[in-house]
Amino acid sequence: MNEPLPITDRTFEFGIRIVKLCQVLDEKPGVGRTLAKQLLKAGTSIGANVEEAQSGQSKADFVHKMEISLKEARETKYWLKLLIATNLIPETRLNSIIKESDELIKIIASIIVKTKQNLQN
After folding, report:
1. pTM for the predicted model, two decimal places
2. Is 85's pLDDT higher than 90?
């Protein structure tokens, strides 16, 4: 069985997928380009904040950075769903990246909960 990727690697890989998707959106005129900017900011911020959390000044700082990452992951999922709802990208092309965003949300939320529990013990 394959060892799961560390969250830093997983969010980096997700960021790569977001960049590639935004490159496709940027080729479309109008609203697709505008949404690409929003998606690019949120989607790449997930990994940036997870990475930044690794050097948190304290456990509380670590949690804070991970909470920002969680918010960005939720926002990313919103933009992805909006792309489908507005027929800018077919749902079949976004199913796997939405699934990955769901998994990242769950993993990051779990890390936050466990870290907060460890702070209380």
Report:
1. 0.93
2. yes
